[in-house]
Every structure is written in structure tokens, then in C-alpha cells.
Amino acid sequence: MIVSWMKLINLTVYFTEYLINKMQTKKTTLLFSFILMGLLTGCTTIQVTDPRDPWEGWNRTVQTFNDELDDIAFKPMAKAYRWITPGFVDRAITNVFSNTTDIGVALNDMLQGKVTQSGMDFTRFVINTSFGLGGLIDVAAMINLPKHKEDFGQTLGYWGVPTGPYIVLPLYGPSSPRGIVGLVGDSAMNPVSYISLVASSYISPGLFVLNTVDKRADNLATEKIADEAAVLGRYEFFRDAYIANREYLVLDGNVPEDEEYLLDEDFEDDLLEDEESPDKNFYVPDENLNTEPRSD
Question: Where are the alpha helices (DSSP H) in the chain?
């Protein structure tokens, strides 16, 4: 298992190096310049209808760009990753990246005054790193130490920093000014960010690509749910879902009743059916359904 995992990392590092070299060519520079011009042009083509989303023109253009990039690059890579990666190796890789984030989770717990939860999350990291072979196995979950979701964006919200207008970032997706600062803080708290300081400069970007592809592969199974829920407006669905989810996380679930994000009954039924389906392999909040069952 460890050998397979290392091979995947090496392949990802090689792919990242290839992408970086290609991006340095003149043709690629011109292509990205053209894309940027298109994105900037899109900012002025849509009339703003939601005060939370004053940059709707830009956001719609970037979301279209992200969707198309996903179709031609990330989705095929995710399908190939699922095809070549045994299930237990995939779970181990997911566990490793999840384990590295527990350091930031514990620090953000402390910054929000959640001392007990901070101790639990730090204990999770220590147990999984030592007894779980560097995080390959989620031993903490076996002894009822659940993983919590805390990030620096939530910490800023806890201390009253406003979220700011909704924005869709190229390659990343839905965010906000507070969320962008949060991403910087999360990166600073993640040990993966510092690997390139003591090893090859391609290691950290390579691991970032591997983590992205791993998450995208884990998210292949839920696109049917997202597409059905977004039938009346894909852009509005993802915007409203992001805003509601971030508010829920910042308020630790204590959302005012008049602002609760309620699912309609048909969507809840579809969600339950998908969770019980034998084709479902992992939880996935993103795009593109793969109906082929996964074999370990």
C-alpha cells in the first residue's frame, strides 16, 4: 500500500512539473491572457440582482470556466485515478491529507475558545500520526474521536469579521474576501505547505494536485444530486448553498430560523436514495456522477 501511495505521489509530482513547464511557454501564456480578458469582460454583462453577489458577472464567467476545465481536465483525471487506485489506497491517501489538516483544526479551535475540542483534535492528530502509520489509518475514528470542521475563515467569522461579497475563484470555486484570507491562514497552518522548503520545490504543488484529484474522485458520485437540485439555476444553487453552509459552520449550526437553508422533500428523498444506493462509494459535494461501481 505504501509503495502504491509513493508511486502516485511521484506521478503527481511529475505531472505538476510538466504543467509548470508548459505554462512557461508562449502559447500557454497567450491562452491564459485570453481567458483573463474573457473573465474581465464578463464582469459587465450581468445585471446584479442579489446584494450578496455584486460581482455576479465575473462569478458566472469564472464558474463556467471552472466547469469547462473540470470537464476537460479534472474529471478525466479523477476517473483515471479511481480506475487505477485500489479502494484501500484511496482511503489511505484521503486519510493522510485529512490528518495534516487536524493541526489547523486544533489551532482554530483554540483561537475560537473551544479548548476541549482543540484538545480532542490535537489528540486525533497525535494518535493517527503515531498509531495510524502517519495518518494512513484513521485510528482516532475507531475510538470515537470524531473529526471536526474548523478553518481560519470560521475563526475570522467568530471574531466578527464580515464575510464580504460572494466571489468565485478560478480553479478553486465559491469563496469570499474573508474566505480568501482564510485560505491563506489555512495554508500557513498546513505542514504540507512547508515540505518544499526542505525538499524539491515541486513536492508541495504535487501533493496539492494529488489532494485535489483525490477529492474530485471522491466527489464523482454526487453530481446527480447537485444537478437535480440545481435544475432551476445551477449558479444560484451553488451560490446559495455556499453562503448557507459557511454561515452554518461559523455559527456552529445555530442559524436563525428565518435564514435556515431547507431542502425540499423531493430533494431529501433523492439524497436518501443515493446514500442507500449500492453504487455510492464516497461522500461528494461537487460534480459529475460516475455510475460505475467501484471495486477495491
Answer: 2-23, 26-42, 56-69, 75-84, 87-111, 115-130, 139-142, 152-158, 177-189, 203-218, 223-229, 234-250, 265-276
DSSP 205: H
Neighbours of 287 (CB within 10 A): 20
How many CA atoms, within 13 angstroms, populate the side-chain half-sphere of residue 223?
Answer: 14
Distance (Å, whole) CA 77 – CA 54: 34
Q: For residue 109, how many other CB atoms are within 10 A of its CB?
A: 22
Whole-number pLDDT of residue 244: 95
pLDDT in tens, 205-262: 899 999 999 999 998 888 777 777 777 788 999 999 999 999 999 999 888 766 554 4
The DSSP element (H or E) to which 174 belongs, if any, is strand 173-175
Lookup: cell for 274? 443515493
Q: How many other C-beta atoms lie within 10 A of the C-beta of residue 258?
A: 5
Element (H, E) at 175: strand 173-175
What pLDDT digit, counting tens, does each position of 122-174 carry?
999 999 999 999 999 999 999 999 999 999 999 999 999 999 999 999 999 99
User: Whole-angstrom Cα distance, residue 199 to residue 89?
Assistant: 24
284: left (phi over 0), alpha (psi -120 to 50) or beta: beta
Strand, coil or helix: 1: coil
Q: How far is Cα 74 from Cα 278, in angstroms, rounded to an integer?
A: 25
Indicate the residue type of 239.
R
- Quick one: cell of 54? 455584486
Q: Please report which helix (H) or strand (E) contains residue 167, including its range.
A: strand 167-169
For residue 20, which phi and psi values (nearest 5 degrees)? -60, -45
16, 82, 89, 91 from 292: Cα distances, Å: 28, 11, 19, 18
Beta bridge partners of 175: 167
Cα 94–Cα 192–Cα 223 angle in degrees, nearest 5: 35
Burial of 77 (0-12, 13-18, 19+ CB in 10 A): middle
Mean pLDDT value across residues 182-194: 95
